[in-house]
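Here's what a typical entry looks like (RNA-binding protein KhpA):
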Amino acid sequence: MEKELVEFIVKSLVDTPDEVNITTVEGEKSTILELRVAADDVGKVIGKQGRIAKAIRTILSASATRDGKRTVLEILD
């Protein structure tokens, strides 16, 4: 569910939504979502001083906590 949430938010922000790719890495205590976007769209996902990335992580954390999980978002270049 968290993957679809992040995918929806990020695709709404970027110019090339077809190049949004999210990989899920399951760990023992947490789940890592690795986000890849087009090179031109990285700045749009991160935002000024990381504000948009922080907001996405906050929403993700709230969603994961509701399910009793811990989920981390990594934005890869």
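Residues 20 and 49 are 22 Å apart (CA to CA).

More examples are in the samples folder.
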